[in-house]
Amino acid sequence: MADFIPRKGRCFGVAKPFARDFYDSKQWKQCRKAYISKRRAADGGMCEQCKERLGYMVHHKIQLTPDNINNTEISLNPELLEYVC
């Protein structure tokens, strides 16, 4: 379920090779930061799935693929993101 594991500003871990540039992009980092701020303001940043623990990762509700990663209506759409633990 993880999008990526940050390490020194670069994506590592579970990000698929085709998605690494996207997760390192300024656009994604801004979108992610804005979404986390919105969730923290809404309910203190609780996980949107379990609602019991703090979220720590922004997850795409629609799995990113090589075919849709460049479609900003999917990859950068806050309505298709969730903050999860």
Tell me what you see in this structure.
- With 85 residues, the chain is α+β, with helices and mostly antiparallel strands.
- The protein is built from three helices and four strands, in the order ββααβαβ.
- The strands form two sheets. The protein has a two-stranded antiparallel ribbon with strand order 1-2.
- Strand 1 (5-7) and strand 2 (10-12) form a beta hairpin.
- The radius of gyration is 12 Å and the shape is elongated.
- The model is unreliable at 1-12 (pLDDT under 50).
Key attributes of the depicted protein:
85 residues, alpha+beta, two-stranded antiparallel ribbon, 4 strands, disordered N terminus
CA gyration radius, whole angstroms: 12 Å
Total of DSSP H or I helical runs spanning 4+ residues:
3
Termini separation comes to 10 Å
Shape: elongated
What is the SS-derived class?
alpha+beta
Share of helix, binned: 25-40%
What percent strand?
15-25%
Largest sheet: number of strands, sense, barrel closure: 2 strands, antiparallel
Order of helices and strands: EEHHEHE
Lateral strand order in the biggest sheet: 1-2
Nutshell version of this structure?
With 85 residues, the protein is of the alpha+beta class. The chain has helices at residues 20-24, 26-43, 72-75, and strands at residues 5-7, 10-12, 57-60, 81-84.
